[in-house]
Amino acid sequence: MPREGKYCLSGHPTLPCNVLKFKSTTIMLDCGLDMTSTLNFLPLPLVQSPRLSKLPGLVLKDGSTFLDKELKECSGHVFVDSVPEFCLPETELLDLSTVDVILISNYHCMMALPYITEYTGFTGTVYATEPTVQIGRLLMEELVNSIERVPKAQSASTWKNKEVQRLLPAPLKDAVEVSMWRKCYTMPEVNAALSKIQLVGYSQKIELFGAVQVTPLSSGYALGSSNWIIQSHYEKVSYVSGSSLLTTHPQPMDQASLKNSDVLILTGLTQIPTANPDGMVGEFCSNLAMTVRNGGNVLVPCYPSGVIYDLLECLYQYIDSAGLSNVPFYFISPVANSSLEFSQIFAEWLCHNKQTKVYLPEPPFPHAEDLESDYIPNSDFSEEKLEKCNEETGQGWISVNLCAYILIQTNKLKHYPSIHGDFSNDFKQPCVIFTGHPSLRFGDVVHFMELWGKSSLNTVIFTEPDFSYLDALAPYQPLAMKCVYCPIDTRLNFIQVSKLLKEVQPLHVVCPEQYTQPPPSQSHRTDLMIDCQPPPMSYRRAEVLTLPYKRRYEKIEIMPEVSNKRWGKAGFCSYLEAAFQ
């Protein structure tokens, strides 16, 4: 293995986990958790599901039934009947206890953190912004809660045997790295992992052992999301992960600081490069309105932060004109209340020109006093006033804070920790429900898929791009409800990447191999790949890459009396020349 280089621990380009050995330091870049493995498992219903409990066990082609307790058949697909498991980053490629620091780019890319910090002997420090940490905590808490509330008595492991797996039908037969699949961590492990994080701010310079300096930059993608600069005195590596150039983000992506990079590591691009986010939002609204007008219910599988707030902004401006004023909207998540609270706490990260005012006694935003009232008249927030507030504060604050708050205060949006308790009493149909998990394998969404799936009046709208919606729906077939795919992904597309690379002009680009060739389903689309000169260096999971920067100079400090006494001036210079060739 090379003394210095990049180790790829994840094969998922938007859920990266890489390790960079640079100037005698070992730096992990993100620790994303690949949850697509959960699509191979049966859903975890909150109440007993007669349909799922009656599914037949798998019978192999030779008539063997030894897997009938572990694997179940449903509409031509085979699923594991066990607690869902996640595909961890590689742990055998290098000794992870030698990792000095972990740099987190955004809250979606930290979901594997407890597996790394609690099971590998890691003793270093994790760096991330405060919104990344707090929203990441919400995502982890929801994940743990959703799985622990539906305990499974049995576990399935026989099917993972390589000799057994090759006898199975696809996609289980072709599932990769099944030996790396693990059950979900616990909240004590989450808390232990988060306790190792040191909070940082944009442009804050962090010294690592006097050899390397790392700096987080705004990436424009999400609350607190960051790109990272890793540099020594004479070399510079930029890590660009999960970035956005959309002007609706009030904290724009810091492109200028990426210039003059020897190497730019590029990952986390949009998963749907041919889809326009604005067009997808429009389709979302029109399909939602059509379903409700016809007396049906709408189910939106989502995470408790992120895209949901973009959708709430859209709905705030759309509800009245579409005649949906009397339709209830429900946000169900064990962390729903905390998520809505954080949208106010982290206003400073959304609005750059208001950061300094956050710490002053007066409200940092226009109309903030109005948010103290129990009710906000619609006339106080006309479209003209909203536009003025957008200009003055940054549109993201309106998206994440004001629109959600107004919807709640006007009783159009209600939030609950689960389907039990108050929700059972308040529940009215037709309605729109936002809940998790987007995989449709656990969480309250499973209950509504079972409840509404038999009626063609109802619609499930997929807006999160992380999972194949057809695979997500497979264990619910046959399904009468309508399914609409409106994936919203604001991360960089290939046209934007091309412009970015021409602007910042790195000497070398390093990226996942998926970005160096057209998508398999669109082999003729050569525009859906990274095109730059020199051609990008690509990597795949479990691969070690020697980075192409050359060590031209090195800064050292040595006491004169030591060098003169041991080598003499000429001998010492000869030693240095040999050492850095």
Automatic annotation (TrEMBL):
It comes from the Eukaryota. Keywords: Cytoplasm, Nucleus. Residues 308-473 form the Beta-Casp domain. It is found in: Cytoplasm; Nucleus. InterPro entries: Beta_Casp (IPR022712), Integrator_9su (IPR027074), Metallo-B-lactamas (IPR001279), RibonucZ/Hydroxyglut_hydro (IPR036866). Its main location: cytoplasm. One of its GO terms (cellular component) is cytoplasm. Pfam families: Beta-Casp (PF10996), Lactamase_B_6 (PF16661). GO terms for biological process: snRNA 3'-end processing. Belongs to the metallo-beta-lactamase superfamily. RNA-metabolizing metallo-beta-lactamase-like family. INTS9 subfamily. This is Integrator complex subunit 9. It comes from Callipepla squamata (Scaled quail).
